[in-house]
Amino acid sequence: MRTAISEATRLDGISLLMSGHTIREVGSELGVSSSTVSRWRQQSAARMPLRRTGGRPRKLGKRDDTLIARLATREPDGNAAAIQRRLACSDLAGVDVSRNTVAQSLRNSGLRPYVKKRRPGRPPAGSIAGKKRRRRVAGGAKKHRRRREYGWEWD
């Protein structure tokens, strides 16, 4: 049978949660189940401070994320692998991270990857190319002339 929990107990639980206690600690201290305390937390989520729920700590800080985004947008070879090599061999950030970590940092910074379009090639030196083909190749080269050289662009 369900027993009614007083409003004072609920408010005490919420105040303990806001002060940093875990759900289990609050439940054992007040004599209620942890699912009840969890429900209280969900109902008053707007007033609860956000905190990390666990997991592995980040290897890169905000400053490193900014540096990586700047390298991606300003360097001619700004793909994730090149940035990872540059970070590993220089004193810029002083961290050795994987290519996937660099790519995740770039996505979190608001950049998105794109596949570079290949510029149409010229006909081989000894071939006989007609006037139409030469125009088509030249038109393709003009179309791709202003394409950015690096592999990340802003959303």
- What portion of residues is helical? 40-55%
Helix/strand structural class: mainly alpha
Helical stretch tally: 7
Backbone shape? elongated
The whole-angstrom Rg is 28 Å
Write down how many β-strands occur, each being a DSSP E stretch of 2 or more residues. Answer: 2
Please indicate the percent range of residues in DSSP E strands (runs of 2 or more).
under 5%
Spell the H/E element sequence. HHHHHHEHE
Intertermini distance? 55 Å
Outline the low-pLDDT stretches: none
Rounded mean pLDDT score: 77
List the strand order in the largest sheet: 1-2
For the sheet with most strands, the description reads: 2 strands, antiparallel
What does this structure look like?
With 155 residues, the chain is mainly alpha-helical. The protein has seven helices and two strands. It has helices spanning 7-18, 23-30, 34-43, 62-74, 80-89, 99-108, 131-143; strands at residues 111-113, 152-154. The mean pLDDT is 77.
